[in-house]
Amino acid sequence: MGDSSLLRELRGERADTPTVWFMRQAGRSLPEYRSLREGTTMLDSCVRPDMAAEITVQPVRRHQVDAGIFFSDIVVPARIAGLGVEIKPGVGPVFDHPIRTEADVDALPPLDDVYDAALAPIREAVGLTVAELGTTPLIGFAGAPFTVASYMVEGGPSRDHLRTRALMRSQPEVWARLAAWVAELSGRFLRAQVLAGASAVQLFDSWVGALSEDMYVSSVQPHSAAALAHVADLPVPRIHFGVGAAHLLSPMLGAGATAMGVDHRLRLDQALDLLPAGTPVQGNIDPAVLFTSEEVRFAEARAVLAAGSAASGHVVNLGHGVPPDADPQVLTDLVSFLHEQGTARA
Ligand code: CP3
Description:
Structural class: alpha/beta
CATH architecture: Alpha-Beta Barrel
CATH class: Alpha Beta
Strand order of the largest sheet: 1-10-9-8-7-6-5-2
Shape: globular
CATH topology: TIM Barrel
Radius of gyration: 19 Å
Bound molecules: coproporphyrinogen III
Order of helices and strands: HEHHHEHEEHHHEHHHEHHEHEHEHEH
């Protein structure tokens, strides 16, 4: 597995052909996913090891991507810890009881041996997946403290994360306790996946771009660092990703990541200028080209390869997740196009 192109790129050694996987490669864009999921809620499917394993493998089988991403969700750990949360189709995660006061934080369940034991279905699913994937590496993941806590504070999806940002400013101690709780929650979830066989991890801080650099560094970075510290003693690369977070690229790396995911708003060569020399990057084909002509799509793929050619390592991905209405054949063809290209080095 150490020889896989994914791990080589993430260690900063270039592989012979471009390495590619897609955020949200599993899921609604695949008919085999939709039929398997029928009659089972999203979060129930995540704690059924056979189902989670099969869904994880589906896009690898179909598209020949170079990595699997464990089928789960950033709110699965909260559900396993006992919080009332569901994923409303077309909406996203919704919590029964938003966390907004000190008393709400006091009432959060402890994260101890009982939680670790309850992660058994996750360990089992990862084990089944790794066996099924063979030589293709599995990426484990978790949500970062800001993004997960923002769902908990808002109670559901939010555009501006205003309540969360207000809590951070008006009750910084309450925020710090909540963020520390999520760091422990996500950190133990990451560690369980790696110990069960995941070869790399990605920490998703999807909504962190809503913060200024000052707010990030003072109120979020220490908690993201605490989450990543749960796997820092294990020999796995740690990818960190946020949307609209160009201004946070370097401090996010500073939270203890070893590679940075970049969204489609920032060219990879510009990202490299913002990062310490030698940092491997991941990204960042604009998902919009999944809905254009092949000519436009392949031109974008070539441009992304060229922009990443100066990096010590480059894992090709989309700038954000696969939209549910993407045509799976378009993704399969994009993977084979990428695999036909060499890794031109600058
Ligand atoms: O293939 C993969 O990438 C692995 C699976 C995965 C899911 N969620 C499955 C899922 C991953 C990595 C996630 C992470 C996740 N979940 C993030 C971070 C990545 C990102 O997109 O920025 C976030 C913010 C969430 C929260 C969340 N969960 C949202 C916003 C939604 C979409 C709601 C909707 O229906 O449009 C979900 C639901 C979800 N998570 C689905 C899947 C396959 C769709 C639910 C379904 O199939 O019924």
